[in-house]
Amino acid sequence: MSVHVRYGEFFTFLGPPHSGKTDVLRAVAGFMPVTGGRILVDGQDVGALPPGRRSTGYVFQEGALWPHLSVREHVAFGLEQQSVPAVDIARRVDTVVARLGLAAYVDRRPAALTLIERRRLALARALAVEPRVLLLDEPLAHLDPLARKTLRLELAKLHRDLAVTTIHATRDAADALALSDRLAVLHGGRVQQIGEPADVYQHPVSRDVAEALGPANFLPARVIEVRDLGVVVETDGGHRVPVAGLGAYGKGSRGLLVLRPELLGLTEAAMARGPGLPGTVTLRVFEGARQLYEIDVGAGQLVRVELSASLGDRIFRLGDRVRIETSSETVVIVPES
User: Fold this and answer.
1) Could you say which DSSP state residue 315 is in?
2) What is the pLDDT of residues 311-331, one digit of tens each?
3) Angstrom distance (rounded) from CA 304 to CA 283
4) CA–CA separation, 178 vs 43, rounded Å?
């Protein structure tokens, strides 16, 4: 399969560990040989070029900073290797460190920086050479949640302002969904699906893809009715659920019903109207902004439901009889295997 990353695009390879994400980046950068196919940058086959001549900027997962060099020396390093005039190096270093919020730390070494500042420094070093392609290998890994959100927003702003073609590798669905113009889901070294984040999230082609994009419930089901605009499936627990737009599934076909916890609703069983899954509350967890529930829908199947914890919303208790509300537009069926 060929993957075409468009000029100025933020493209993400998303997948679990050992799925091949970093290998793709290393191959583009020239750090590992390519045994088949070609790598083209602006139409040029760069397969025979050494890393220093590929015009790529690489941000390693752990930063790969040199402990004996200052911030200024890190950012200037690549420019010096390119024999850029000293006056231009000084100007570009000042511009990049200011953009990354490091102007006050130019004389510090990595040990005197926080983790998020070290990640900014790694970005600054890669951007200083004005690469044609920026390669990001899990740049947000191991940051605490607040720092991760902060740097994620900074990355989005950088890409908006610089429009540099960016190839990003991550195992984190939130990073991929928030940052990408398009993404490719990798599993077992193969591309499973390519598309815009919302489309891949809402219409995964397999269980592997659905799991890569975040938490999901999977219920074995069988198609019992084919309609003009979709199908009706029956779960192994005997519950019927309509699913939109599935012409490839005929009557009797089996698959896995994919239900995202945050796309489900919950109501009292006695007041329920429309499609859904009846069940019993077996677990409730309060997380401040949201309530997490686990619902027993029969046949040994538990469904997780995530609701916003808005003031005035009904709080369900253990043992309550409820109905999980579904929508044919947000429920998906994928192959069992």
Assistant:
1) -
2) 567 889 999 999 999 988 889
3) 9
4) 29
